[in-house]
Specification:
Aconitase, domain 3; binds iron/sulfur cluster; binds alpha-methylisocitric acid; Aconitase, domain 4; 19% strand; seven-stranded mixed sheet
Length: 643
C-alpha cells in the first residue's frame, strides 16, 4: 500500500507504537523552535532536566511575541533566553529578526524533517514539507533533551485542491473556506495533507498561510508536498542543498478526502469572534472599518506585503482607518525597503511596526471601543486584540488592503487588475541577527532577571480529589480565555504566581480569588476545551491555583497534553448530557483515582454532594500518560524514570 506524505515522514521518525489512528506513537524530533512567551518556561524546564547540550539536529529560540518593552520584564526574559541559547547549543533569533514561523520557513525548515515548537502555529512549516507540530514548552524541552514526542497517531485527511485561484482570491481564502466547511473542531486528531493540481499554483508562502491556519481547524499538523516549487523557494533562500522531493504515493490511502475547487472560490472573511465564523466577503460589504492590520505568521510574507503595497501605491489610506503593517521578518522588511514597496506603504499612510507578532497577540494597536478591525491574522477570539468590545474580522491581504482604501469591507474583485508578484530569484540573505550557540559554553553565565521565578512543582496524584466546581464554561473555550495574553499580562509569562492572578480574568474576574478561597477545585467545560494556543500557562497557572481536574465534553489536543504534563486530570463526561446536571460551586469528590489509574481502568465517578448525584466520567490516558499523571506531571516523570 502506498504512503501519504505524513505517513512517510512519521514512519521515518517512528520510535514507538504503530501507525494506527488514535493509538499513541512516539516520534523522533529533528528540530525545535521556541518563542519568548513560551520559551522562558520551556528553558526553565530544560534546565531542570540537567542535559548539558540540546540533542536535536537544530533548535532555535525566537524573540517575537514580547517585544513591547513597557517595563524591564520582557528585556530581562530576552537576556535569559539569549544566555540559555548560547550555553545549551541553540540558535538565537534576536528581537526584530521576525516572527518565528516566518523566519523558520525562510532559514531553517527542511522538507521531511520533524519540527516541534512551543507555539500552536508551528505547522506553518508544512508549507515547505516539514512536519511541524505545536506543543507545550515542557514537551519541547523534553525533545531538546533527546526525548521523543508522543501523540495519538493522527488520521490523514487529504485536501485535494482542483482548479486555479481566480484573480483577487488567495491562499487565505482557501483556508477560510475550509474553516467554514469544517469548523474549529474539524481538524482535531488529523493531519491535513494537501494535494491535487491546485497545489502547483501555490507558492511556498501561500502554502504556509494555509498550513498555518490548520491550527485553527484544531489539526495536529498540515503539510504540502515538497516539489519543484519548494525547490525554487529553497534555491532563492540559498538552501537548495537541503531540499528533497517528498510526494504522496499514487496509491496512498487516506482516512478522509475532501475536494475544493479553486475555480469557484471567492474572497472569504471570518466574522467576530471565531475563525470559523466565515462567509463570503460579498455578504458583509459596506461594514465600516476603523483599523486594518496586515501581518502575523499567517500573512506577512514578501508576497503578501508586495500585494498590499501594490494596491496602496499612489493612494492614501481612508481617513477613518488606521492601517498598521508588521512585516513577518527582517528579510521581508529589508526586501520591501530595497525594492521601494515600503516607501509606497509609508506614502499611503501605513503605520509600520517592527517585525514581530505585535497586534496579533494584543501587543499594542488595540482597536478603539467597539472598533471594527480587519486583520490578515489567524485568530479573532473576543478580547484578544486588547479591546473586549472590538469586532475583529480575518481576511486575506487583498481584502484587508481594500478595506484600508475604502474604509469599509469591500470585495477586492471590484478593484480591476490585481498587482502581480513574482518570486525573486534570490532573497536577501543576512543571518546576522541569528546568533549561533557559543563554542565555549562553559564560560556562559545564565542571566536571570528578577522577573524569572522558579517553576512551581506539581504533587503526585492523590487517591481522592475533593473540592468545588470553580467555574462552569461552555464549548470551544480557548486558551486565550483561560490565560489571556496582551501587553499587560504577557510580561508575566516567567512568573507563575503573578500571572495566575489573571486566570480566566476575561471570563470571570473573581476566578483566581475564588480558587484561592476554596483551596483549588475543578473546572467544568463543554466541547473542545482549550483550543487555540499552545501556552502551557493555561495549565500551569490553574495548577498553581489548585485546579485538580478539568471535566469536559472533549479537549483540544495541545491543551489536553499540557494538563497531563502538569498533573491535572482531563476527564470526559461519559454522558455529555450530565454537563447540565453539574453547576458552578457544586461540591464534588472523585474517589479511588490512583487505584483506578494503576488498575488501568478508565471509568471514575464524580460524587456531587451538593446535589446528591453520581456522575460517570472517563479518561482516555495512554499507559504512559497515566504514569505521568500519577507522578504529578511530566517533569517528575522524567526525573523518576531517569533516576
Ligand atoms: C498565539 O498565537 O496565541 C500565541 C501567542 O502565538 C500562542 C503561544 C503563546 O501563548 O505564547 C500559540 O499560538 O501557541
Ligand atoms: Fe505570533 Fe500571532 Fe503567529 Fe501567535 S498567531 S505566533 S501571536 S503572529
Amino acid at each position: 500500500m502506498g504512503l501519504s506524505i505524513s505517513q512517510k515522514i512519521i514512519s521515518e521518525h517512528l520510535v514507538e507504537g504503530r501507525m494506527i489512528p488514535g493509538y499513541e506513537i512516539a516520534i523522533r524530533i529533528d528540530q525545535t523552535l521556541t518563542q519568548d512567551a513560551t520559551g522562558t518556561l520551556a528553558y526553565l524546564q530544560f534546565e531542570a532536566m540537567n542535559v548539558p547540550r540540546v540533542r536535536t539536529k537544530r533548535s532555535v529560540s525566537y524573540v517575537d511575541h514580547n517585544t513591547l518593552q513597557t517595563g524591564p520584564e520582557n528585556a530581562d526574559d530576552h537576556a535569559y533566553l539569549q544566555s540559555i541559547a548560547a550555553k545549551y547549543g541553540i540558535y538565537f533569533s534576536r528581537p526584530g529578526n521576525g516572527i518565528c514561523h516566518q523566519v523558520q520557513l525562510e532559514r531553517f525548515d527542511v522538507p521531511g524533517d520533524t519540527l516541534l515548537g512551543s507555539d500552536s502555529h508551528t505547522p506553518t512549516a508544512g508549507g515547505l514539507g516539514t512536519l511541524g507540530i505545536g506543543a507545550g514548552g515542557l514537551d519541547v524541552a523534553a525533545a531538546m533533551a533527546g526525548e521523543p514526542f508522543y501523540m495519538p497517531m493522527p488520521k490523514i485527511c487529504l485536501v485535494r485542491l482542483v482548479g486555479k485561484l481566480q484573480k483577487w482570491v488567495s491562499a487565505k481564502d482557501i483556508i477560510l473556506e475550509l474553516l467554514r466547511i469544517l469548523s474549529v473542531k474539524g481538524g482535531v486528531g488529523k493531519i491535513m495533507e494537501y494535494g491535487g493540481e491546485g497545489v502547483k499554483s501555490l507558492a511556498v508562502t501561500d502554502r504556509a498561510t494555509i498550513a498555518n491556519m490548520g491550527a485553527e481547524l484544531g489539526a495536529t499538523s498540515s503539510i504540502f508536498p515538497s516539489d519543484e516549487i519548494t525547490r525554487a523557494f529553497m534555491l532563492a533562500q540559498e538552501r537548495e542543498s537541503e531540499w528533497r522531493e517528498i510526494c504522496a504515493d499514487e496509491d496512498a490511502q487516506y482516512d478522509q478526502v475532501l475536494e475544493l475547487n479553486l475555480d469557484n472560490l471567492e474572497p472569504m472573511i471570518a466574522r467576530p469572534h471565531m475563525p470559523d465564523n466565515v462567509c463570503r466577503v460579498a455578504e458583509v460589504e459596506g461594514i465600516k472599518v476603523d483599523q486594518v492590520a496586515i501581518g502575523s505568521c499567517t500573512n506577512s510574507s514578501l508576497r503578501d506585503l508586495m500585494v498590499v503595497a501594490g494596491m496602496l501605491r499612489g493612494k492614501t489610506v481612508h481617513p477613518d482607518v488606521s492601517l498598521v503593517v508588521s512585516p513577518g521578518s527582517r528579510q521581508v522588511l529589508e526586501m520591501i525597503a530595497r525594492n521601494g514597496a515600503l516607501a509606497d506603504l509609508i506614502a499611503a499612510g501605513a503605520r509600520i511596526l517592527e517585525c514581530a507578532c505585535g497586534p496579533c497577540i494584543g501587543m499594542g494597536q488595540a482597536p478603539k471601543t467597539d472598533g471594527v478591525s480587519v486583520r490578515t491574522f489567524n485568530r479573532n477570539f473576543e478580547g484578544r486584540s486588547g479591546t473586549k468590545s472590538a469586532q475583529v474580522y480575518l481576511a486575506s491581504p487583498e481584502t484587508a488592503a481594500a478595506a484600508a482604501i475604502f474604509g469599509e469591507i469591500v470585495d477586492p474583485r471590484k478593484l480591476g487588475e490585481p498587482p502581480v508578484f513574482e518570486l525573486p530569484e534570490r532573497f536577501v540573505i543576512d543571518d546576522g541577527m541569528i546568533i549561533p550557540p557559543s563554542e565555549r559554553p562553559e564560560t556562559v553565565e545564565i542571566v536571570r532577571g528578577p522577573n524569572i521565578k522558579p517553576l512551581p512543582e506539581a504533587e503526585p496524584m492523590p487517591e481522592v480529589l475533593r473540592g468545588r466546581i470553580l467555574l462552569k464554561v461552555g464549548d470551544n473555550i480557548t486558551t486565550d480565555h483561560i490565560m489571556p495574553a496582551g501587553s499587560k499580562i504577557l510580561p508575566l509569562r516567567s512568573n507563575i504566581p503573578a500571572i495566575s492572578e489573571y486566570v480566566f480574568s476575561s471570563v470571570d474576574p473573581n476566578f483566581s480569588e475564588r480558587a484561592k478561597q476554596y483551596g483549588g477545585g475543578f473546572i467544568l467545560a463543554g466541547e473542545n476545551y482549550g483550543q487555540g494556543s499552545s501556552r502551557e500557562h493555561a495549565a500551569l497557572a490553574p495548577m498553581y491555583l489548585g485546579v485538580k481536574a478539568v471535566v469536559a465534553k472533549s479537549f483540544a489536543r495541545i491543551h489536553r497534553q499540557n494538563l497531563i504534563n502538569f498533573g491535572i486530570l482531563p476527564l470526559i463526561l461519559a454522558d455529555p448530557a450530565d454537563y447540565d446536571r453539574l453547576q458552578q460551586l457544586d461540591e464534588i469528590e472523585i474517589y479511588d483515582v490512583v487505584k483506578t489509574l494503576r488498575e488501568r481502568r478508565d471509568s471514575l465517578q464524580i460524587v456531587n454532594s451538593t446535589r446528591d448525584l453520581i456522575i460517570r466520567v472517563k479518561h482516555d490516558l495512554s499507559d504512559r500518560e497515566r504514569e505521568v499523571i500519577l507522578a504529578g506531571g511530566r517533569l517528575n516523570y522524567i526525573r523518576n524514570t531517569r533516576s
